[in-house]
Design goal:
By secondary structure, this protein is of the alpha+beta class. It is built from 2 helices and 4 strands; from the N terminus they run αβαβββ. The termini are far apart.
Length: 102
Amino acid sequence: MDRHWGTERYLSGNPFLTAGAAEMLASARATLVGIDSLNIDDIGDRTRPVHSILLGAGIPIVEHLRGLAGLPSRGCRFSAVPPKVAGVGTWPVRAFATLPKA
């Protein structure tokens, strides 16, 4: 989806996770789940089951990731650094990958 960033296409027809996928990730004890899409949930489902399952299990969610195709499938380290802000449910982060030394 990142190829559609900044266009109307980015705001509709988004890929998302299912509740079953979120349950599997929670059972596998994922430490963070990210997606290169507008929302990790189906934007047509106001119950937001994926948010509820992952956040309820203490698993942070990172949405709107871009440039993932340029990363190796293994060996990079992901960081999502938020500013220190209290009392909000969502906030931008500086997301980046550190690549292994060649």
